[in-house]
Every structure is written in C-alpha cells, then in structure tokens.
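Lecture notes, continued. The same structure-token format from the folding unit now serves as the input rather than the output. Read the line below as a description of shape only.
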C-alpha cells in the first residue's frame, strides 16, 4: 500500500517530465469539470465559483457536471477513463486518492490514474449537535459516550468521506464508540440532523456553519487547524482538548493520467490566477472555503502524506467497504 501512495508524487513528476506537450491552441473548446459530489456540496460550490473566473482567463467556458456517488468513486472513475487531452477534469476532495484506495476493497480506478492539478481550497468538517441533544461541547459528547455506550449516533455525508474519517480519527484516539449513520452527501445529512433524526453530525463546515451561526445547531469543534470563518466561536478539535488533532481536507482538481504537462501547468496557473482575485476569494471564504493554490508537485506530496495518515486510521478502525 505504501508504494501505491508514493506513486501519487511519482506520477506527477513523470507527467510533468515525460508527456508530449499540448498544442498551442489549447483550449479551443469547452472544458468539462466533473464534480464527484452532489450540487451544493463544498466541492461543487468551489468548482462553480472558480470555473467562471478561470474560464475568463482561458477564454473558454468551463462547464460543471455532477457525477456523485460512492464517496467520489463514480466521478473519479469516469474522469480516469476520459481522454487525457485537457478537456476533462475531476473536482473532488483529496479523499478520493488518500482514503478510498485503502477503504474500498474494489475500485475501478487507481490513485495514479489521476494527476493532481491544483488544490482549490482547504475546508473543515464541523462536529455539530442539535439543541435537543443537550450536547454543547466536545467534553459533553465524550462524557455521554462513556456513560451510555451505543446510545449516541452521528451523521456524515457518506462512507469514507471527510466527516466520517474525521470522526473515526477522534473516536480511535478517544477509545469511544458512536454509531455512524451515512448519507448521500452532507446536505441531506444536515437536514436530518436539523430535524432531530440523528442527534449529531460531523459534516462539511460550509454546509453546517450557517445553521450554527443561526443558533439552530451547536458547533462542538472543527476538524482542521483553523476555526470556521462563518462560525468563529467554534473551537478546533485541538482547542477543544484533542492534542495534536488536525484533519484539514482539500477540494482538488485532478486530470486523467497522461494529460500533457503544459496543460496541467496552464490549468494550475489559470486557477491560481482566479483564486487570487478578491471577489473569488471573498465568495469562497463566504462559503467557509480557504483558497490554497500550489504547484502540482507540492499538492502531490501533501496527498502522499495524507494517504499514509488515513491508511493508519482505516487499519486501526478496521474500516473496509466493498
């Protein structure tokens, strides 16, 4: 498994060094961005904001097509099998290559089938609970889980998605057991938490932060190293008492393996230029997304580090899916 993770960085180096250069007229037609999660998800929001601005730079339309399902695997498979000509890209969280290869027993793509182009934005997961649950802090949840094991449950946006992994990382370290209730995306999960069908959720901050700000949910903690822009009173997991905890996730843009190096670099530059625009940054930050462009090689190294971390969590918790 380790060698597979190391290939994430190696495949980028090979792409940038070895593939034929693209024709000078790229792009000369519409570019398709396949989003691996449903409309309204953080990645979908990021893709649509960035697509407009990057399209103006590239002087071509960037259209967004949602292909959700299986923790991002359906969209990832579709793009991995697409022509490597610079006209199809995948928008997905980093977990499609850092988590899914270790979590799923069978995948119809390999992580090295996808080249990281650029990180669009960092984003957190937020642990939230309903007012009726009586849980206001992470210490409250910890105490309830120890006092009455098996009585608590939490919602996530699906098996193996960032919220699921963020919670399992915490539960493994704390020695707790809380029932996982997976949904098909963070939005339907949030609606059931709001309705009291599930008392808590570890869900994408861009989706739940507005409800925390409105007092409809209590935010116990966020998964990353920085607080939510929309709900700044909610502490990080580390600030809430979980020493060394950091589960920051990235919304990514990938290309099929074999995409010419100059196309990868030009798309990276176009997105970075878009992310530097004040109005784009403002829109992303207003959705609790932190713009973080970097080179394809830097992104690949971060993916490699995260893959190793999550593989350990998956082994420790014996998380496997068909």
């Amino acid at each position: 498994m380790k060698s597979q993770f190391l290939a994430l960085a190696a495949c980028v180096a090979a792409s940038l060094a070895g593939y034929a250069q693209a024709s000078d007229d790229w792009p000369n037609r519409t570019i398709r961005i396949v989003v691996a999660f449903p409309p309204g998800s953080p990645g979908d929001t990021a893709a649509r904001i960035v697509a407009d601005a990057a399209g103006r730079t590239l002087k071509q339309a960037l259209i967004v097509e949602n292909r959700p399902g299986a923790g991002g695997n359906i969209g990832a498979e579709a793009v991995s099998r697409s022509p490597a000509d610079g006209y199809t890209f995948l928008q997905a969280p980093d977990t499609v290559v850092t988590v899914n290869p270790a979590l799923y027993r069978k995948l119809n793509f390999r992580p090295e089938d996808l080249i990281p182009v650029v990180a669009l934005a960092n984003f957190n997961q937020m642990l939230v609970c309903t007012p009726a649950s009586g849980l206001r802090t992470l210490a409250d949840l910890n105490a309830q889980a120890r006092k009455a094991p098996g009585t608590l449950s939490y919602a996530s946006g699906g098996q193996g998605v960032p919220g699921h992994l963020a919670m399992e990382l915490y539960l493994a370290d704390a020695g707790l057991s809380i029932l996982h209730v997976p949904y098909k995306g963070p939005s339907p999960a949030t609606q059931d938490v709001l309705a009291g069908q599930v008392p808590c959720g570890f869900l994408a901050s861009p989706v739940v932060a507005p409800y925390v700000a409105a007092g409809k949910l209590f935010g116990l903690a966020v998964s990353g190293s920085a607080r939510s822009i929309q709900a700044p009173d909610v502490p990080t997991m580390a600030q809430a008492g979980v020493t060394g905890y950091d589960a920051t996730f990235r919304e990514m843009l990938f290309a099929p393996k074999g995409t010419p190096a100059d196309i990868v670099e030009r798309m990276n530059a176009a997105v970075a230029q878009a992310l530097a625009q004040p109005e784009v940054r403002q829109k992303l930050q207003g959705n609790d997304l932190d713009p973080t462009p970097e080179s394809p090689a830097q992104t690949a190294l971060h993916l490699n580090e995260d893959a190793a971390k999550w593989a350990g969590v998956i082994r420790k918790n014996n998380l496997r899916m068909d």
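Point for the exam: Confidence is low (pLDDT under 50) at residues 1-6, 15-20.
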